[in-house]
Amino acid sequence: MSELNTSALGASTPPALMLASRSPRRTSLLSEAGLDHQAGHPGFDDAMLVPGRVEPGVWVASLAYLKAWAKWRELRRAGGGTVPRLVLGADTACLVDGDLVGTPTSPEEARGMIARMAGRQHDVITGVALIETASGQRHLFVDRATVTLGTLSPAQIDEYVASGGWKGKAGAYNLSERVDAGWPITWEGDPTTIMGLPMRELKRRLGPLLSDLAGSSEIG
After folding, report:
1. Residue 5: which pLDDT band, with cuts at 50, 70 and 90?
2. Is residue 93 a contact partner of residue 102, using CB atoms and an 8 Å limit?
3. Which candidate, 103, 157, 201, 217, has a CA 20 to 30 Å from the CA of 169?
4. Where are the beta strands (DSSP E) in the chain?
5. Residue 201: how many CB atoms within 10 A of its CB?
6. How far apart are CA 62 and CA 91, in angstroms?
7. What contacts 1, CB < 8 A, 6 or more positions away?
8. Which of 39, 26, 193 is nearest to 123 (CA)?
9. pTM for the model
10. CA–CA distance, 24 with 31 (Å, rounded to integer)
11. pLDDT tens by residue, 147-172
């Protein structure tokens, strides 16, 4: 999927869905589900935001909505063209001992996250927001899964951190990549929730929305 070119919104009819993210994992999940879409960065770095005294589910849902809202605002400001009918935002975090663990910003932070989660369970929560571009009506939900990560040696953790595979990943790992790498990892719940976009619930909710909002919309 290519980055949105707002100067060419009217050049062709876009897909009905806009993903407010450049995450390759979320794009792949949508594509594998047969959901045609465009993808574009929401325009801000949510890693700079610090959660207040809110429930973890409220926090990830709020970030998902903020991403979708920022992209929706960009579309409205561009105006005068045909745009997707739905904007999709999502945010994922791990929950360890009641603490939210987001995306690491350094090798040291990634090493600490993996070491903390090794040999025990943690939860992964993903918040999703859908905004109807014509009306601004929003739809939010949160999904949760539980991951059990087996014991990892310090050498295994060091090798992984040195590979850079932790970059851009909530909790410093991607489920499918770590399964393929042979890590001792199991889970309960929707695996796509752990990978950043809960496709079971998303497809259930998208069905009636996309049928009601078939095609594209005019914003101007």
Report:
1. very low
2. yes
3. 201
4. 17-19, 38-39, 81-83, 86-96, 99-101, 120-132, 138-149, 185-188, 217-219
5. 17
6. 9
7. 19, 27, 31, 37, 38, 39
8. 193
9. 0.85
10. 10
11. 999 999 999 999 999 999 999 899 99
Domains belonging to the chain, first-starting first, are 6-215 (3.90.950.10)
Amino acid occupying residue 9: L
Given a cut of 80, whether residue 14 has pLDDT beyond it is no
Record the tokens describing residue 217, joined without a space. Answer: 């919309």
Q: Residue 165: phi, psi to the nearest 5?
A: -65, -10
Closest by Cα among 161, 44, 173, 42 to 101: 173
Report residue 59 as tokens. Answer: 């926090």
From the list 149, 143, 160, 146, the residue with the least C-alpha distance to 196 is 143
| Euclidean distance between CA atoms 9 and 15, whole angstroms | 11
Q: Is 170 helix (H, G, I), strand (E, B) or coil?
A: helix
Place of tokens 């090794």: 118
